[in-house]
Amino acid sequence: MKAEVLKYEAFTENPGKGNPAGVVLHGDAYTEEEMQRIAELAGYSETSFIRNSEAADLELRYFTPGHEMDLCGHATVASLYALCEKGRLEIGKTYSIQTKAGILPANISEKERRIHITLEQAAPKFKPFTGDREKLADALGITAEDFHDDLPIVFGSTGIWTAIVPLKSLEASKKMVPNNKQFPEVLVDLPKASVHPFTFETIHSDSDLHGRHFSSPYSGTIEDPVTGTASGVMGAYMQQYVRSGQRTFIIEQGQEIGKDGRVEIEINGDNDHIKVNMTGTAVYSETRILEI
Predict the structure, then answer these.
(1) Which end of the chain is more exposed for a tag (fewer CB within 10 A), N or C?
(2) Per residue in 142-162, pLDDT tens?
(3) CATH top-level class for 125-276?
(4) Which of 232, 243, 240 is nearest to 266 (CA)?
């Protein structure tokens, strides 16, 4: 059996940048085991499968090379961008997307002559990090002195759980070399979570925050270049813990690994009813035919 996988790079308009995702247009043709095998062969941080849905306009299922994910921001942007390019979705409309994180609305718009996808993510949730800060620093290749003095390390989710780690400086972000295999023993509360350090210092002058994203060792990848769901958690974290009053953020990511990308995050509502909207564009890269 063969599978056609389209490669799109999300959160950039420049080929070779942003975050690559595999997109399979005819996801109903494959079993769950076959979808996992396709994602493993494709090797992207996530591959999405577009499927018919009785509950929504369409269903998206997301697989890393190692396991299925409830939600993936960059693969959602890539998938809807691809469907719009191919005339299956229309600019100016909002569609309901069935995911394992719930049925979420996604709007397709045109800005600066490019298709942009805005996804409303799942409601933010936070849990305290009760692990050892020294061990976490060691797993990231830095020291505990590099952590921000006044902000907490917490687990956050707008669809998938990640550990949000505030850093003092951009220099700390640049020098990180993670040992992902250590994550489960450090993240004792949620051992399958990823780790998402961020800093207020940025490379681009128009960015508000700078992030990196290190994958769970169960995912089969080391670093996710530009992450939509984790960027959404960052925006919710700013509302919950920083309380600056800022509601829109441009988040840069991927610069350390040559994958410069940008995610736009908008926060609506109050602390009890926060809505997180993530916006990004994408660019087509290539088509691969895989034997499964």
Answers:
(1) N
(2) 999 999 999 999 999 999 999
(3) alpha beta
(4) 232
